[in-house]
Design brief:
Length: 768
């Protein structure tokens, strides 16, 4: 029989139960026991629900209190020295210190780096390795959760991040050695874990090796052979599913199929081209796991189409060698469509969230095992939904398509080169060296969230709500002026999310009410659903920027989310190329930017934190993506005067390999995350002569730590070792909405003080 399989399920809970428990624990309002109880209850719910949905291979250890890569760090004892870990079991305090940093009377340590998980909007904690790294079993979470499910009468398939991908996704101290050199020391921990699982009765284990869909050198490929030969030798009856996802293995398939594993998973939504090769190359009796249901988007699968693919595989290999599942873990989609209240019936009929995707998997597996007549009604309902979407006149709007087609080459270029613009902007804005600013958002306090919710529920009038927002903006402007900030922000108190805010004001985009997706830790977002052609009916941000600017003589930045980020952080229609949708968004943002300029806003920030994360996993595909994504930014930003200064912001990504493309964006000022890496990111500028101005982040806003003035000053000095004093801006890593005022007030004060200190040093000839 074909096996209905799942690779992973959302962790946060249908009602964000885990988010609330985590934040309660961090505030000291929830005990560790209570936090663990919430997490345990969620695991039970998820296992039982998957069992009822007809899933045969149910994952365990896919749930996490923060991040599955951090869980692996804890499992193998790769805790950096600065956390003063006692080499025992990694406890909650150590675990969260690595994720968030810690600052109290006894300890002040920074968090580990965080970056994007492949090309998703999920963030993972980056492992840190040193030469002669000691690995030891320091968490048996994977075994405990397998037994926890077994006690409920549910046999699960434990999930572990594979040893090779774990090492490749980490970083080494000072880049002084290759982390794969640590493999021999790491493998004994993995073999011990597999032995324990086998002893406890586990039949299958899922080992995720997503790096197999990336470009790998010969050393990495040999590391897979070494690893899985050792793991196979350590077990007798435990079956291994090697899981790949997010793309096609291409040339790495030969390596995967030569490994002593019992099944290999293929992502067939992003790598359908690899199926035929797999069917001809897979050795007997290895099984093939077909990722037919998209784990990263919300559209219903065309089950008739996917069933044909499954039938082809079954005809070639036989039912007993086929698993049917999602393309990847379902971590990246909302939990349950049935809880969604904001979507109309027609649009909702086109969608499938995590729970519904399990049902799709069950339908496909049942059709293969019992015949299509066994699920005839489900297949017909799906067929009608696909027809409805394809024929809907909500999707295609001729005026939008015509405008995209009428774009001219001149619309992608500023009037003058940067050197001329810079001269005009310096005269016009009259800013000091090392100008200080923040990235955009300020704390979304409990009062802000409460008033927004009250307005949405019609409990207060629009006038009351806007009066409240104006008072928040006024206080924010006063605070920034008071500490001596050079370029101010209005705080974005009117925005719940930097993408959702724009999506809800655009045509062709739907906004949900309860479709939360984990971004990192307790941070959740509700990605908009782009279902049709996009336009902007009226200005979206001008009113609030104009009001903020009226309160001060200092420049206030207009804040707009860029087209690539709106695209990447939404669930995007899959019936046309992504670049076409991106250009539609770019024209809408261009209109907004021009309206801000006409309203007197002289500095406009177009955030593009997602540009790097959208980079294809294969280098051979980079050029095409970078061409259209950079062009979309330029289309959005190039309609302004030379004196208007365009900023962009990027965070938590590796930029070294795309600096030429970033330079082609031609933003007047680029701000980037760099504090967690202690300005490591700036090493790229030693080799690449970046022509424009740069704001390397000097305050890590994803940690509750308050950096001292000297700490920030030292980061600025490090920046000045690479960049010139008239090139650097001083700013935090990212927006401040997730922090509270008690944290950001002293932090921004220290940031301004640090800039003043280093300016004075430069004036006295003491600087780098």
């Amino acid at each position: 029989m074909a096996i209905a399989s799942n690779l992973g399920y959302p962790r946060i809970g249908a009602n964000r139960e885990l988010k609330r428990a985590l934040e309660g624990y961090w505030r000291g309002n929830t005990s560790g026991a209570d936090l663990r109880k919430v997490a345990s209850d969620l695991r039970t719910q998820h296992w039982q629900m998957q069992q009822m949905a007809g899933i045969d291979h149910i994952p365990s250890n896919d749930q996490s209190l923060y991040d599955h890569v951090l869980d692996t760090v804890a499992m193998v004892g790769a805790v950096p020295d600065r956390y003063d870990w006692d080499d025992g079991t990694v406890d909650l305090d150590t675990y969260f210190a690595m994720a968030r940093g810690v600052q109290d009377e006894d300890k002040d340590v920074s968090a580990m780096e965080m970056t994007k998980w492949f090309d998703t909007n999920y963030h993972y904690i980056v492992p840190e390795f040193k030469r002669n790294q000691n690995f030891q079993l320091s968490s048996t979470k994977v075994v405990k959760e397998y037994l926890e499910a077994k006690d409920l009468g549910i046999e699960t398939r434990p999930v572990i991040l594979g040893p090779v991908s774990f090492l490749l996704l980490g970083k080494t101290q000072n880049k002084e050695f290759n982390q794969l050199e640590l493999l021999d020391d790491l493998l004994p921990v993995y073999t011990y874990i597999l032995n324990r699982l086998e002893e406890k009765g586990a039949e299958w284990v899922q080992i995720d090796e997503p790096c197999l869909v990336t470009d790998l050198n010969e050393e990495a490929l040999k590391s897979f052979h070494k690893s899985y030969t050792a793991l196979d030798a350590a077990t007798t009856d435990l079956n291994i599913l090697l899981a790949t996802y997010f793309g096609s293995m291409e040339e790495n398939m030969e390596t995967a199929f030569a490994l002593p594993v019992d099944a290999v998973h293929l992502d067939l939504t992003r790598g359908l081209n690899q199926l035929e090769k797999a069917l001809t190359r897979i050795p007997d009796p290895m099984s093939l796991s077909l990722g037919l249901i998209d784990g990263r988007n919300v559209w219903k699968a065309d089950l008739s189409e996917q069933l044909d693919i499954a039938k082809n595989a079954v005809e070639r290999l036989g039912k007993e060698r086929i698993m049917i599942g999602p393309s990847s873990s379902l971590l990246y989609v909302p939990v349950d469509l049935e809880q969604e209240t904001a979507l109309d019936e027609e649009l909702a009929s086109w969608l499938a969230f995590a729970k519904q995707k399990l049902q799709e998997i069950d339908v496909l597996a049942t059709a293969i095992n019992d015949g299509e007549q066994a699920v005839e009604e489900a297949l017909e309902t799906n067929r009608q939904a696909i027809i409805s979407r394809n024929q809907s006149d909500r999707i295609h709007r001729p005026t939008v398509k015509e405008r995209v087609e009428s774009v001219t080459p001149e619309m992608y270029q500023r009037n003058s080169e940067f050197a001329e613009r810079r001269k005009q902007q310096r005269e016009h804005l009259n800013l000091p060296d090392l100008p200080t600013t923040s990235i955009g958002s300020l704390p979304q306090t409990k009062d802000v969230r409460k008033m927004r919710a009250a307005f949405k529920r019609d409990e207060i009038s629009k006038e009351e709500y806007e009066s409240f927002l104006k008072e928040q903006i006024k206080e924010a402007i006063r605070f920034q002026e008071g500490i001596g900030m050079d370029v101010l922000v209005h705080g974005e108190f009117e925005r719940s999310d930097m993408v959702e805010f724009f999506g809800e004001q655009m045509e062709g985009v739907a906004i949900t009410s309860n479709s939360w997706v984990q971004s990192y830790g307790s941070r959740c977002v509700r990605p908009p659903i782009i279902y049709g052609d996009i336009s902007r009916p009226e200005p979206m941000t001008v009113k609030w920027s104009e009001y903020a600017q009226s309160l001060t003589e200092k420049p206030v930045k207009g804040m707009v989310t860029g087209p690539v980020t709106i695209l990447q952080w939404s669930f995007v229609r899959n019936d046309q190329p992504r670049w076409k949708t991106c250009n539609q968004i770019a024209l809408a943002i261009r209109d907004e930017v021009n309206d801000l300029e006409n309203a007197g806003i002289e500095i406009i920030q177009i955030d593009e934190p997602a540009l790097r994360e959208g980079l294809p996993l294969r280098q051979s595909d980079w050029e095409k993506y970078l061409d259209w994504s950079v062009d979309a930014f330029k289309l959005a930003s190039s309609g302004v005067k030379d004196t208007t200064q365009i900023h962009t912001h990027m965070c938590y990504s590796e930029f070294n390999d795309i600096m030429e493309a970033i330079a082609r964006m031609d933003a007047d000022v680029l701000s980037v995350e760099s504090s967690r890496s202690r300005m490591e990111l700036l090493d790229v500028f030693k080799d690449f002569d970046y022509p424009n101005e740069i704001g390397p982040g000097v305050y890590d806003i994803h940690s509750p730590r308050i950096p001292e003035t000297e700490e920030v000053s030292e980061l600025i000095r490090k920046g000045l070792n690479v960049l010139s004093k008239d090139q650097i801006w001083i700013n935090p890593d990212c927006g401040l909405k997730t922090r509270n005022w008690d944290e950001i007030k002293p932090s921004l004060e220290h940031l301004v003080e640090a800039a003043d200190t280093v300016r004075e040093e430069l004036q006295n000839g003491e600087g780098p």
